[in-house]
Design a protein that fits this description.
Layout (H helix, E strand, L loop, with lengths): L3 E9 L3 E3 L3 E4 L11 E2 L7 E7 L8 E8 L12 E4 L5 E5 L10 H4 L5 E2 L4 E7 L1 H6 L7 E7 L3 H4 L6 E2 L5 H7 L3 H18 L6 E5 L3 H9 L11 E6 L3 E6 L11 H5 L5 E2 L1 E9 L10 E6 L12 H11 L5 E4 L4 H14 L9 H8 L12
Parallel strand pairs: 18-19
Antiparallel strand pairs: 1-2, 1-3, 1-5, 4-9, 5-6, 7-8, 10-11, 10-13, 11-15, 12-16, 14-15, 14-17, 17-18
């Protein structure tokens, strides 16, 4: 059996988990992978699929799968579960460890299949973006995905934020016309480029608290400094996705949020956020905070859920300084203006999400920004 770059896709019918990629091995061992799920029904089943990753191929090679029908009472075979390929052939064995616990009174109140950790982050550096957009052939564009615990507790499924029918850019994407289908296809392609798992040009790890968030996510790896920056973000069923928006706060192009959400018709929440020194820009070596808003014209999340957002962030990243504003709040506009002044002092050579959207979308829409 030749060396493979393998990852595993463990899939509950209502929730899924994808492992990191182990490079150049035909006997992969995921010693540090953990997946905690609460309130699992007794009749739950687990499907495990394995793939061989190759960055040079359009699609990953499917190795095989196996099914666990009685997940709660799973007793692993001594030699491991048989991996069966697409044509029914035997493709090796997989050793899986599952620990089950009795439901506590607290757990019984959680939605079925509640993801409860650990919080893992993934950064994808896309070298193809510069060539695809002709912005800068040598540029690197980074996108982030962080798995978050108990999103369904803080943002129940019945409170999903559906696309905004009052927003022309959203109607163009989700309205059902031939142009909409073309727009969605382009958005999904761009999303795959921005978030596709690769063997190279990526980073992953765990985030346990606010200190980890600042250290691993928001501190520049080269300068070891926290720079002024504005991000577009979405929160979906299990993850917080975001990417740098850039210096231009207002834009004429189509939805950045739909791009991050992979063309989904609804999300749990969306908006923009930025980081700022808690005591002013003249004290950048002091304590920092994250400022979140609900500025998404595409999904138009309601301001009353900003408190839910804050509680979700504090639950996942204890000790984090979080400030929330409605997108109409004058205090937000003041904070953004201060941020823009600081950003002008920085020379950003990375293309912004605004620029990427304008090049990926088949049609530039003369509409207002997502933040109005």
């Amino acid at each position: 059996m030749s060396n493979r770059n393998t990852y595993v896709d463990r899939h509950f019918y209502s929730i899924n988990f994808r492992s990191t990629i182990l490079s150049n091995t035909s006997t992969p061992q995921w010693d540090d992978e953990e997946w905690i799920v609460r309130n699992v029904p007794r009749d739950a089943k687990l499907v495990v699929k394995l793939y061989d990753k190759d960055d040079e191929q359009l699609a990953d090679d499917y190795i095989g799968r196996f099914l666990i029908r009685d997940l709660i009472n799973y007793n692993p075979p001594l030699k491991g579960d048989k991996i069966i390929g697409a044509l029914g052939q035997y493709n090796g064995r997989f050793h899986l460890s599952i620990q089950t616990m009795r439901l506590t009174e607290e757990t019984k109140l959680l939605p079925h299949y509640t993801f409860d950790g650990p919080c893992r982050y993934f950064r994808h550096d896309s070298l193809a973006i510069g060539r695809l957009t002709m912005l800068n052939a040598d540029c690197v564009y980074s996108t982030w995905k962080i798995q978050m615990k108990r999103i369904s507790v803080f943002f129940p499924p019945y409170e999903r934020q559906h696309w905004n029918r009052q927003y022309q850019a959203a109607r163009t994407i989700f309205g059902g016309s031939p142009l909409s289908l073309a727009s969605q296809s382009t958005i999904k392609f761009a999303h795959k480029v921005l978030y596709g798992r690769t063997l190279k040009h990526n980073e992953n790890g765990r985030v346990n608290n606010a200190n980890d968030l600042w250290k691993f996510i928001f501190t520049d790896k080269i300068t070891q400094q926290i720079k002024p920056c504005l991000y577009t973000y979405v929160i979906d069923n299990n993850t917080w996705r975001f990417s740098e928006t850039g210096q231009q706060f207002f834009t004429d192009f189509a939805s950045k949020h739909a791009l991050l959400a992979n063309g989904s018709e609804s999300v749990r929440f969306a908006g923009e956020f930025h980081r700022r020194p808690k005591h002013g820009w003249n004290r950048c070596d002091d304590e920092w905070e994250l400022v979140f808003d609900n500025g998404s014209g595409t999904y138009a999340p309601t301001a009353d859920l900003l408190e839910n957002l804050k509680e979700l962030l504090l639950y996942n990243f204890p000790g984090l300084n979080v400030v929330t504003y409605d997108y109409k709040d004058p205090k937000l506009k003041e904070s953004i203006e201060q941020l823009k002044s600081e950003m002008k002092k920085e020379k950003h050579i990375t293309p912004t999400l605004d620029q990427l959207v304008s090049h990926f979308q088949p049609l530039a829409l003369n509409e207002r920004d997502d933040n109005v």
